[in-house]
Amino acid sequence: FIVYDSQSGYYYMFLTYGGLNALDGYNIREYRSENPDGPYVDAAGNDAKDMKSTGTKVIGNYQFSFDETAVLSPGHSSCLIDDDGRIYQVYHQRYNDGEGAFHNVQVHQMLRTENGWLTMLPLKYNGETVTAVDNSDVAGEYEAVFFSADTKATDDWSKVNDIIEPVSALSVDGEILTVDGKETELKLSEDSYTFSFELEGE
User: Above pLDDT 70, what percent of the chain?
Assistant: First the structure.
């Protein structure tokens, strides 16, 4: 699926890797280009034509502590930009319910990062709006999922936990961000709508 964002000036391409079944590892990857015909690259500069383990993964298998079941095989992406400039990712997902037969459609809002990439909010759209913040506004404890580059799949339900991305404990205290016990600097962007940080050189 390819969509043009006039605000950033990029065409964004979303590809789904993996298979459709619950254990087959469906996941959505993002590339972008200044031209509709490409070349399309991911955030690391990898060309979409390389296919294997490229693309910035915007969603895969995950489960927060408050979720009753894990989200499995999210994919079949469509991306919509509304007249008000809001961006929505529409896809379907399955669940870690022992069968994986049931799936439903999800709509999540996407936001632009400071350097023009689209990132997806972790919870389904519920009318939320973007607001400028300072460090005191975001202080607190969080859970975070850092998606790996590989497609996580298995053919055995007894091994389903092996294909669910781990959840990291994250806390913010002023300009200090702590992820799984490792401290780094949290940098708010000039418009105070987005943030960035480096962890282990990335």
Answer: 99
